[in-house]
Amino acid sequence: MTTTQNLNGKVAFVTGGAQGIGLETVRGLAQLGAAVVIGTRDAKKGIEAAQQLKQEGFKVESIKIDVNVHEDNRAAYHYFIENYGKLDILINNAGILLDQESISSKPIYQTSTLPLKILRDSFETNFFAQVDLTQILLPLIRKSDAGRIVNLSTILGSLSLQADPNSPIYSLKIFAYNASKAAINAFTIHLAAELKETPIKVNSIHPGWARTQIGGGAADIDEAEGSRTSIMAATLPEDGPTGTFFYLENTLPW
């Protein structure tokens, strides 16, 4: 899959960008020349991350945002319109796992016993908040000559693989997390179809099983490797795919 390796003049926003895969995505986009804004609920952590990356020679700022709060998402819009006048890249990276401590840990609940509050809270952050923020920022992305929206999903959100007894992820039934990620995949499909006649590309990505708070310590790859697919999706050329679900060079089934 070909990508654009020069992001000079581009503006990127990475939610959940102060740690983990999000932080490595910020670093990767900044290395390519983009001005990158970290979005994080922890203002202090965001400032510290931005300062570190500035010391490394990158153009990075941070703003405090809780994607679950509509007013915070509106404030992000005003930040970008006042400081940049546009937004080229949106990485919807923020997300939560409430069903269990990590992907590699034992389930806290089975589907039949899962409290509805966990299901609702999972959808609030992993789906509704992402839709709200994207809808709010879309007018700014329309101002870009090559807008890119990247929705962080997971292979666990693939309904095809979850339903296949021969699938390697068949046993990983983390209902609230998986269902909320399947929902964000549906958002990707619908928004990409709406924007297919524009320069904006919308894709879902699986970052890989990375050693993060959600992935757990037994995961296969580190956070930097986990950021690679996000960066690929953010730097797709004009003839790149839209409305797809992929991991590195591999297209994944919905």
Structural class: alpha/beta
Q: What form results from the Cα inertia axes?
A: globular
* Total beta strands: 8
Uncertain residue ranges: none
CATH superfamily: NAD(P)-binding Rossmann-like Domain
Query: How many structural domains?
Result: 1
Strand/helix succession: EHEHEHEHEHHEHHEE
Strand residues, percent: 5-15%
Per CATH, the architecture is 3-Layer(aba) Sandwich
Task: Kindly report the CATH topology.
Answer: Rossmann fold
* Average pLDDT number: 95
C-alpha Rg (nearest Å): 17 Å
- Measured between the Cα atoms of the first and last residue, the distance is 19 Å
> Level of helix content?
25-40%
CATH hierarchy, class: Alpha Beta
**Annotation field: number of helices:** 8
Instruction: Specify the biggest β-sheet.
Output: 8 strands, mixed
Spatial strand order of the main sheet? 3-2-1-4-5-6-7-8
Structure description:
This protein is of the alpha/beta class and 254 residues long. It has one domain (11-251): NAD(P)-binding Rossmann-like Domain (Rossmann fold, 3-Layer(aba) Sandwich), CATH 3.40.50. It is 40% helix and 14% strand. The chain contains 8 helices and 8 strands. Helix 3 runs parallel beside helix 4 (116-141) and helix 4 (116-141) packs parallel to helix 6. The model has no long low-confidence stretch (mean pLDDT 95).
